[in-house]
From TrEMBL:
It is a multi-pass membrane protein. It comes from the Bacteria. It comes from Desulfuribacillus stibiiarsenatis. SUPFAM superfamilies: Multidrug resistance efflux transporter EmrE. Its main location: membrane. This is EamA domain-containing protein. InterPro entries: EamA_dom, EmrE-like, RarD. The chain crosses the membrane at residues 15-34, 46-68, 80-98, 110-127, 134-152, 158-174, 186-207, 219-238, 245-268, 274-293. Residues 15-151 form the EamA domain. The lineage of its organism: Bacteria, Bacillati, Bacillota, Desulfuribacillia, Desulfuribacillales. One of its GO terms (cellular component) is plasma membrane. Keywords: Cell membrane, Membrane, Transmembrane, Transmembrane helix, Transport.
Length: 346
């Protein structure tokens, strides 16, 4: 690779980082937008968000000439079914998040998005039958402790956090398996649920309970703008995904819930007690282990922990312990099953 090509690659990567940061910052400040509509019922906000997002996304499809990719997805029955379920899960996620913001539960909502990556790992284990590595297991355990602490704080299950995490994790899993472009996917998803949104808005219109009127005012502009507010971060993220590394996207994803948490505590004055701090502390530790689960130095540490554990707890000689826990070139470590370890110990 010559110097000019290297410079172009670096430039593209920097542009990808910029797009990623911009996308997650916009997602992080989105609660400010929904808070300006807190006098409108959550269901009505969701209906407008779905409808205007659909309108905006078809505009994006037209501008970027993505009709062929759209047709390629629509003609495949398996992908249509996948997007249908994506539409259901993202609608649940949007409804819950808007409701959380407008009922002063943004701290709990931020908690939900912090634990989403761990829920994705759990889904991979349950649905895809993938095996947890050591650090992923540690992360999952810490999340469970964090949720238990949150239950102690609220005196109930943190339902909003759990619904947000599980719905978005399911959304991501289905979309990943279907291998659908994010812009094309959101266009079809919103198209699926737009008829329901229109029907709901017509019912509000007939019963005289609608907030949208045929006039130019702040309410109408905010409701119409919900489409752009939803789509723009996704467009920036799609550009980032083409340019930035997976590691960059993995780290920047925590910007959004961090910003939302700050908004909830500092601007909306939601309570953040010592118990909240302890609960979030467990989650942040879990995210640390999750983020570095595949880092090579973490694998070496894991190797040493297993070897030490075997030597001290089951009296396995050091040479045997090193055979049980074998470092492998790359980013994997092969650990013999518990049955094999027990046989050696015996």
């Amino acid at each position: 690779m010559d110097a000019q090509s290297s410079c172009e690659v670096v430039k593209e990567q920097r542009l990808g980082v910029m797009y990623a940061v911009l996308a997650y910052v916009l997602w992080g400040v989105l609660p400010l937008y929904w808070k300006m509509l807190d006098y409108i019922p959550t269901g009505e906000i969701l209906a407008h968000r779905v409808f205007w997002s659909c309108v905006f996304m078809f505009g994006v499809i037209a501008v970027f000439k993505l009709w062929n990719p759209l047709k390629e997805v629509v003609v495949v029955r398996r992908k249509r079914i996948s997007i249908f379920f994506c539409a259901i899960f993202i609608s649940i996620n949007w409804f819950t998040y808007i409701g959380a913001v407008n009922s002063d539960q943004l701290v709990e909502a931020s908690f939900g998005y912090f634990i989403t990556p761990i829920f994705s790992v759990l889904l991979a284990v349950v649905v895809l039958k993938e095996r947890l590595n050591f650090w992923q297991g540690v992360a999952l355990g810490l999340v469970c402790i964090g949720v238990l602490v949150m239950i102690f704080q609220y005196g109930r299950m943190p339902w909003m956090a759990l619904v947000l995490a599980s719905s978005f994790a399911m959304y991501g899993l289905i979309k990943k398996k279907a291998n659908i472009d994010s812009i094309v996917g959101l266009t079809i998803e919103t198209a699926y649920v737009t008829p329901i949104a229109i029907l709901y808005l017509l019912v509000l219109q007939v019963t005289g309970k609608q907030s949208f009127h045929m006039a130019i005012d702040s309410t109408n502009l905010l409701l119409i703008g919900a489409g752009a507010a939803t789509a723009l971060p996704l467009i920036y993220f799609a550009q980032a995904a083409k340019r930035a590394s997976l590691a960059t996207l993995g780290f920047t994803q925590y910007l959004a819930p961090s910003i939302s948490l700050g908004i909830g505590v500092l601007l909306f004055k939601e309570p953040f007690t010592l118990i909240h701090g302890i609960s979030f502390g467990f989650i942040w530790c879990a995210l640390f282990f999750y983020s570095f689960a595949k880092a090579e130095w973490m694998l070496r540490v894991r190797n040493q922990i297993f070897a030490t554990f075997l030597r001290k707890t089951v009296a396995v000689p050091p040479i045997v312990a090193q055979q049980v826990v074998q470092p492998v070139v790359g980013q994997q470590i092969i650990v013999q099953s518990a049955d094999s370890i027990k046989q050696i110990a015996d």
